[in-house]
Amino acid sequence: MAVAVRWTGIALLLSACSLEEHGAALTDGGAADALPDAGWVDAPVPDAAGDAAADAADAAADAAADAPSDAPPTCQSTGACTAALPPGWSPVAVPGDPATACSAGLSPSDLLAKVSAAAGACDCGCSVTKSPACDVGTIQRYISNDASCGNTGVVLTVNGAGCTAISPITLSAYAKGAPPGPSGGACTAAAIEDANKVDKQVLRACASPACAESVCKGEVEAGFSACVIKAGNEPTCPAGFDTKRTLVGKSFTLGCSACSCDVNGASKCTGATLSYYSDAACTKLVTTGPVNGQCNANQNAGASANHFTYSATLQQSCSAAGPKTATPALGDLTTVCCK
Fold first, then answer.
1. Cα angle value 261/262/263 (rounded, 5°)
2. Strands 260-262 and 186-193
3. Rounded to an integer, what distance in angstroms lies between the CA atom of residue 103 and that of residue 100?
4. What is the pLDDT of residue 176?
5. How far is CA 111 from the centre of its chain?
6. What is the DSSP track for 276-296?
7. What are phi and psi of 272, to 5 degrees?
8. How far apart, in whole angstroms, are the C-alpha atoms of residue 221 and residue 52?
């Protein structure tokens, strides 16, 4: 009987322990509820070094994701299309409107498609290389005893401002003569070009090595054409790019027409004066007066003279003339061929 009682007590004790293990007896707030609240079961073990490394890795990944790219994700640099291009040709995207900005990842190069001259693009310039003379030539004298100057007198040959000998003459009361004009001058003419007075049409080529294959295959935005470009005047386009061929340039010339110049006719000789002398040194003045094409009275009419001097003042001018037309031409030629 005592043995049975003992076993019964053991069984009751085990039963109570089993209930505590499963928590059935702790529903009223036993010790098991306090464990999670105290952090003993769920709290992680602190690891400062591990957390710092993880944070650094996350920051690097975020920076890489946020960093801008030089080319769109779809761009390809090489492939079958670029490999098939003849040497020297490079893919470019060309917008129909040259004012359109290049697509992302592509850099613009503006080339001249056409240049036309505006008003004033060409002019003519003149430079004097030798000044004309006013004291070289001949003077036909007309004389009279009154103010008519209707009789033919001597012909004076003028060759500089020195004292010049003549056959002895007797001075009339009146005389006139026309002064020699400017002569012996020389000049050069040159066309003057104003490169700012031109109208330009531009072709914009958008290119990037990172996107060469994509552009070559025709993967361009709406409003753009897939093209290839090569320096020089290429008469034949690569296969697949022969829909449109355009010759453009990096520079241009105006090609202004030639000009001519005139310095003798443009200049003037003024203040011409003729003086007669009775000695070879031109120290004994007989008379002096203007040479202006008018009948002027002589001093000392009836006196004799055998030498003369002549002088005039040059008013120099140079004029240039020409059609002043332009024939523009592109330079540093480049060929653009498009699909």
1. 130
2. unpaired
3. 9
4. 97
5. 12
6. EESSTTS-SEEEEEE-SSS-E
7. -65, 135
8. 45
Q: Is 176 helix (H, G, I), strand (E, B) or coil?
A: strand
Burial, 102: exposed, middle or buried (Cβ in 10 Å; 0-12, 13-18, 19+)? Answer: buried
Backbone angles phi, psi at 55, to 5 degrees: -65, -40
- Per-residue pLDDT of 35-45, as tens digits, reads 233 332 333 33
Angle CA(231)–CA(237)–CA(238) in degrees, nearest 5?
Answer: 100
- Residue 170, phi-psi category: left (phi > 0), alpha (psi -120 to 50), beta (remainder): beta
What confidence category does residue 112 fall into, taking pLDDT thresholds of 50, 70 and 90? Answer: very high
C-alpha pair distances (Å), 30 with each of 24, 26, 306: 10, 5, 157
Structure tokens at 243: 């829909």
Task: Provide the pLDDT confidence category of residue 73 given band limits of 50, 70 and 90.
Answer: low
d(CA 296, CA 179): 14
**pLDDT single digits (tens) 138-169:** 999 999 999 999 999 999 999 999 999 999 99
